[in-house]
Amino acid sequence: MATVAPSAWQTEPVPSDPRGWVDRAAEVAAVLSTDAAARDKAGATPYAEIQLLKDSGLVTLLGPVEHGGGGQHWPTAYRVVREVAKADGSIGQLLGYHYLWNWAARLVGTREQWELVEAEAARDRWFFGGAVNPRDNDVVVTEDGDDLVFTGRKSFSTGSKVSDVTVLEGVLEGTQTHVFAIVPSGSEGLTFHDDWDNIGQRLTESGTVTLDGVRTPWASAAGFVDRVFQPRVYNTLNVPTIQLVFVNLYLGIAAGALETAATYTRTRSRSWLHGGYDRAVDEPYVIDVYGDLTAKLWAAEALAEQVAQEGQKLHDDPDAVTERARGEFEVRVAAVKAVATDVALEVTSRIFEVTGARATAGAEGLDRFWRNVRTHTLHDPVAYKRREVGRLVLTGEIPEPTWYS
């Protein structure tokens, strides 16, 4: 990165309210936006970008105040992801996944476990990665005395090389029991491969990871007491929580695309020679497209914020979360996920209609917004999200908790 973090971050305290944190995220986005297109093209490992997130304090947003964290709630975290994603979708994704993996200890672990993890993470400004691709079932966990040993591979490990700690997941040998544990990313036997080469989200370090006998104490197995897992309905809230990260990632990328395109149209687009207008901003069809896309984006953002508030009520009282409440929330998340996917894909593709042929030049980098949205929205089929909504409407059925619902 050619730019540096604002010096005020070194002397000013971290923000104390949601508005302050969103403003801080906007400052981070301003730094990222200066060379976002060039960094996307280079595809280099984003060490400097992650340091920016640490320097700004954004990585501590959900952490306990008494240990240096922001003490904020999920609706603020989603807004922060959206703000950062406006400038750089890859870094927005990394930050959103970090929030989920940081919170995973609370979702799955015992109180003693998550209090310890959250305190250390906030104090030392850990950045979290995760090797938890649910479609790969080839990580086997074996017991060796007081240790667990993880062996196998995962196709995706978002955050990998830039993380301080990594959330591992595997199946305990001879059982159907999944085990989650947090280990240092430099652990012996944990190897991240530089094989992420996709058309979008190019800086997310989401390539393959192999686990060759990665060891961690049994005591670090999240949610286990005396080597027996203690299930709660709240454990299953990981899916709707990360799906809302996706929603805000898409909406942030779409907002960034629209803002970037509007600046281009105002300053560089030429009016059509047969249109009868001197400026592109005065052409009725250009005005109509911007109005149409903006209205759709605003509506999706409003729904996303409403659903985030609904989810926070569940986070506020984890032990009271029922299967019905969790299921109805998942359907609300599915609905906004479907809407956000459609809106983001439309915005990022249609901006070229109102910027013009010269805006397709590689140096402009406008294509990165569409490439990023198109890549990540393939994470899981949006048709199955709409199916969840339709079934609830027609039959009252809520989705069974799975890795994707």
TrEMBL record:
InterPro entries: Acyl-CoA_DH_C, Acyl-CoA_Oxase/DH_mid-dom_sf, AcylCo_DH-like_C, AcylCoA_DH/ox_N, AcylCoA_DH/ox_N_sf, AcylCoA_DH/oxidase_NM_dom_sf. Residues 29-113 form the Acyl-CoA dehydrogenase/oxidase N-terminal domain. Keywords: Flavoprotein, Monooxygenase, Oxidoreductase. One of its GO terms (biological process) is L-leucine catabolic process. GO terms for molecular function: 3-methylbutanoyl-CoA dehydrogenase activity; flavin adenine dinucleotide binding; monooxygenase activity. This is Monooxygenase. Pfam families: Acyl-CoA_dh_2, Acyl-CoA_dh_N. Residues 245-379 form the Acyl-CoA dehydrogenase C-terminal domain. Residues 1-20 are annotated as: Disordered.
